[in-house]
Amino acid sequence: MTLPLPLALSIGDPAGVGPELAAAAWALSDAEGLPPFFVVGSARIVEQAARQRGLTMPICAVKTPDEVADCFDNALPVLDLADLPYTPGAPDDAGAELALNALAIATGLVRSGAAAGLVTGPIAKSRLARVGFNHPGQTEFVAEACGITPENAVMMLAGPSLRVVPITVHVPLRAVPDMLTAELIRSRAAITATALTRDYGIERPRLAVAGLNPHAGEDGRMGSEDAEIVAVAVTALRDAGIDVTGPLPPDTMFHAEARERYDVAICMYHDQALIPLKALDFDAGVNVTLGLPIIRTSPDHGTAFAITGTGTARVGPTIAAIRMAGECAARRMSL
């Protein structure tokens, strides 16, 4: 994969698996055909995390993304922000401050055009809150930095077998029906369709919209939301020229034959989307933020403090996030 600019990887919480997985991804970059990237964080932490994982590899401290191309083939480039000790599985406030600073700087570099796209390492939101992070997550932070309202930043989970977009995300299940509106579904589905064309090269994306209730409401016997909210959104999307079907019974949407009929499943709540995605693509799932002026991806897992430093954390999602960011950035740069 060829990119004129490297990707920026924010280190995430330095006590989590982010540093070691960034190192492991670089070690496999040739075999996996990954584009050049650099870590925004701490050279000392990345080096020690790599050693803890059994990787003997050179680290190249860089001051600007322009230096990445000269050293990526021979060493992992790191934009060095702090000389902190590596404390696997033991998060602290100093590490949280590094994670927040790395996220802000990496986002700024991509926004300024110095890097091709952003890949964010996993964070501990409770730790970040202690050092002034007041966003629900990295998605909202990046969206605000890009001048996009949270409502217009759409989370898509993508893997080799399936793409899903949850309309509502980290909220209690009992709150979902009251949060759903036809306009919310229409807006997020329309943003998804535009992104699939621009960043994934799908000329006419096919959207499948899941119903909220079992059997998509079964003509009102199991709730009125599918007819009064979801179907209204589907009609509006169809009137706008988008190839869309639904509301569909969620329990029959995700088998192999059904998945061949659409490019993305629009789901009403978190688990409706993420359970099939993780069942099918657990080691290759990527969290993508749609609707931004920049490319942003993230591996679909958390900090995994309990296994940090043991060498058992799987590098597949990090490789998938880097690859997808590179592919999307290349398509967008070619427009």
Strand content: 15-25%
Residue runs with pLDDT of under 50 for 5 or more positions: none
**H and E order:** EHHEHEHEHEHHEEHHEHEHEHEEH
Instruction: Write down the overall geometry.
Output: globular
Task: Give the count of structural domains.
Answer: 2
Question: CATH superfamily assignment of the largest domain?
Answer: Isopropylmalate Dehydrogenase
How many H/I helical runs?
Answer: 13
Average residue pLDDT: 96
Cα(first) to Cα(last) distance is 17 Å
Identify the CATH architecture of the largest domain.
3-Layer(aba) Sandwich
What is the makeup of the main sheet? 12 strands, mixed
Structural class: alpha/beta
Determine the CATH topology of the largest domain: Isopropylmalate Dehydrogenase
Helix content: 40-55%
Strand order of the largest sheet: 3-4-2-1-5-12-11-6-7-10-8-9
- The number of distinct β-strands equals 12
Task: Give Rg in angstroms.
Answer: 20 Å
**The top level CATH class name of the largest domain:** Alpha Beta
